[in-house]
Amino acid sequence: MFFKHLLFLGSVSILLSSAASKKPGPPRKTCTVKALGGGQDDGPNILAAFKSCSSNALINLDTYYLVDTLLLTTGLNNVEINLSGTVQYTPDIAKWSPQSLFLTYQNATTFWFLSGNNIHLYGGGTIDGNGQVWWDTLSNSHNSGTAGGSSTTFARPIPLTVGNATNVVVENITEIGSPFWNNFVYQSRNVTYKNIHINSVSYSSSPTANSDGWDIYRSDQVTIMDSVVNNDDDCVSFKPNSTNILVSNMHCNGSHGISVGSLGQYAGETDIVENVTVRNIIMNNAQNGARIKVFGGSPNPNSTAGGGTGHVRNITYENYQVSNVENPIVLDQCYSTDPQVCAQFPSTVTISDIHFINVTGTSSGQNGAVVVDLECSANCTDITATGTNLVAPNATAEFICKNIVSTAELDFNCISPSAF
Ligand SMILES: *[C@@H]1O[C@H](CO)[C@@H](O)[C@H](O)[C@H]1NC(C)=O
Ligand SMILES: *[C@@H]1O[C@H](CO)[C@@H](O)[C@H](O)[C@H]1NC(C)=O
Ligand SMILES: *[C@@H]1O[C@H](CO)[C@@H](O)[C@H](O)[C@H]1NC(C)=O
Ligand SMILES: *[C@@H]1O[C@H](CO)[C@@H](O)[C@H](O)[C@H]1NC(C)=O
Ligand SMILES: *[C@@H]1O[C@H](CO)[C@@H](O)[C@H](O)[C@H]1NC(C)=O
Ligand SMILES: *[C@@H]1O[C@H](CO)[C@@H](O)[C@H](O)[C@H]1NC(C)=O
Ligand SMILES: *[C@@H]1O[C@H](CO)[C@@H](O)[C@H](O)[C@H]1NC(C)=O
Ligand SMILES: *[C@@H]1O[C@H](CO)[C@@H](O)[C@H](O)[C@H]1NC(C)=O
Ligand SMILES: *[C@@H]1O[C@H](CO)[C@@H](O)[C@H](O)[C@H]1NC(C)=O
Ligand SMILES: *[C@@H]1O[C@H](CO)[C@@H](O)[C@H](O)[C@H]1NC(C)=O
Ligand SMILES: *[C@@H]1O[C@H](CO)[C@@H](O)[C@H](O)[C@H]1NC(C)=O
Ligand SMILES: *[C@@H]1O[C@H](CO)[C@@H](O)[C@H](O)[C@H]1NC(C)=O
Q1: Could you read off the pLDDT of 256-295 as tens digits, one per residue?
Q2: Is the shortest distance between the CB of 393 and ligand 11 below 6 Å?
Q3: Which one of the ligands is nearest to 271 CA?
Q4: CA distances (Å), origin 364, targets 148, 195, 332, 395
Q5: Cβ pair 110, 150 in contact under 8 A
């Protein structure tokens, strides 16, 4: 290897080498961050490395780092991050609540905003959100902030947000103890996650809260594959304007399922979820399997509880195996809305072109005999199911449908909710 320079800038060593890439062009820079140890904050040195190595570079995070500073790593271009060590955020609620980065969706905030073009984060390392303290505090204070998310006195930051980014791959990373959602894909395009292991499990009597594996918002071309999620909220959730998404080879345990929505919450807003394939899923011990949730309509033009417009179109759930799941298939177009309001003001988020292929397994029995519940408030069109083989533990399975324009392409016999 040909070393041009080896510099030390505080605890960041910077190596310029041209041998690493055999291609001609500028040498690739390598920044390796040393840990300070003794409970000191490694955040400033990590930020210095992202600044020095922001373009055509490799950043090595190869040891244990304690981070007490917002990681706002933006403007990256052609950067590899080899996280073979551990990034652990301090559980300092008073400090993080105001300093975490506020995002413009549900007042979510983040510890790390990873942003730029052509970013590859990998290495087998761990991101540790130190969530136990946040869950315990939430449980004791019931301070859920705004919209279940955050306030400046009690924010629960997301450990990794890929935001305002294009062409990103995140692979071979473990995430533990997230105070809130584990991953947020925010205003980004072409983002792939592979081989991610998520564990959001509380070791006290306080439950975890909002421990979604992934939330996707205003993002296009997102792939999540070959991953394992152990949590207590959505395994993956497609929020407003998630398009061209593939989720495959996932093993979800304890979750609330893989969900479209909720959508249509805010009057005057247009929410789109389109072209989603969810395939080869094992869903165990969960509240839901395949779920679509959309608010009802509203007479109030300023409503924050339904009345938004948009569409859910071309969604496929395929090869989906459930075990001990309360609602294996659930579509609710009157989500969190009074049924009488929905009767008068059906949802203005349309639902069409929805396909359930080879969804099999056993419900928990929590919902009696019901294993499929498809309830639209407006008419839902082109809903199909093939290869459905769902059973309830102690009863003959029941399938509920309402306002499904044609049930001819469903391979089960629908009963209406009133009969149930
Ligand atoms: C990442 O860094 C670790 C530790 O330095 C090293 O063993 C590993 O080979 C690196 N991974 C890649 C793909 O370069
Ligand atoms: C975010 O919080 C502010 C006040 O802190 C509140 O006015 C606003 O409605 C919240 N936004 C959402 C989307 O909940
Ligand atoms: C993300 O992009 C939006 C729109 O361009 C911009 O307003 C916002 O400041 C960006 N956020 C960050 C943290 O860079
Ligand atoms: C998506 O990003 C990957 C990784 O950076 C890149 O190899 C691929 O060409 C990109 N695809 C598109 C369609 O831009
Ligand atoms: C990710 O892990 C897989 C399986 O261990 C390995 O084959 C692959 O090379 C790793 N990717 C990187 C970029 O280190
Ligand atoms: C979603 O995309 C549509 C069409 O581009 C746009 O009109 C709408 O404002 C977007 N909604 C959100 C929540 O970003
Ligand atoms: C539906 O979405 C899938 C990707 O999930 C895409 O391959 C397919 O072309 C889309 N079909 C239509 C009719 O848009
Ligand atoms: C959905 O996929 C179809 C077929 O590939 C494509 O024509 C359409 O533009 C996609 N929709 C969005 C919102 O990207
Ligand atoms: C909606 O909000 C606008 C602007 O704040 C206000 O002028 C209007 O009176 C509100 N309408 C209703 C029905 O509350
Ligand atoms: C149905 O899905 C299961 C996994 O859930 C898979 O093993 C099986 O091969 C699929 N059957 C068909 C006909 O694709
Ligand atoms: C089903 O019935 C068996 C035998 O009566 C009982 O032990 C079991 O708890 C029941 N399971 C559920 C989920 O109701
Ligand atoms: C659903 O379609 C039927 C038949 O076209 C129509 O009579 C009914 O009013 C529609 N219902 C809603 C809620 O749009």
Answers
A1: 999 999 999 999 999 999 999 999 999 999 999 999 999 9
A2: yes
A3: 6
A4: 28, 28, 19, 11
A5: no
pTM equals 0.94
Alpha carbon distances (Å) from 254 to 43, 138, 212, 234, 283: 33, 20, 11, 9, 8
Ramachandran angles phi, psi of 10, nearest 5°: 60, -125
147 lines ligand 2 (CB under 6 A): yes
Sign of CA dihedral 403, 404, 406, 412: negative
Report residue 2's pLDDT band, with 50, 70 and 90 as the boundaries.
very low
CA 272 vs. chain centroid, Å, equals 17
b (16+ CB within 10 A) / e for 56-95: bbbbbbbeebbbbbbbebeebebbbbbbebbbbbbbebee
Reported as a single tens digit per residue, the pLDDT across 111-159 is: 999 999 999 999 999 999 999 999 999 988 876 655 456 677 889 999 9
Catalytic residues: 233, 256
For the chain, the straight-line distance linking the first and the last C-alpha, in angstroms and rounded, comes to 72
Q: How far is CA 36 from the centre of its chain?
A: 32
Alpha-carbon span 160 to 176, nearest angstrom = 11
In 78-148, alpha helices (H): 93-99, 131-141
| Angle in degrees, CA 107, 112, 116, rounded to 5 | 105
Here the tokens at position 10 are 């505080």
Domain locations in the chain as residue ranges: 102-419
Atom of ligand 3 nearest to the CA of 115: 14
Pocket test for ligand 4, best of 162, 190, 245 (most atoms within 8 A of CB): 190
Residue 16: how many other CB atoms lie within 10 Å = 17
Question: In this structure, which topology does domain 102-419 adopt according to CATH?
Answer: Pectate Lyase C-like (2.160.20)
Residues sharing a CB contact under 8 Å with residue 37, sequence separation 6 or more, in sequence order: none
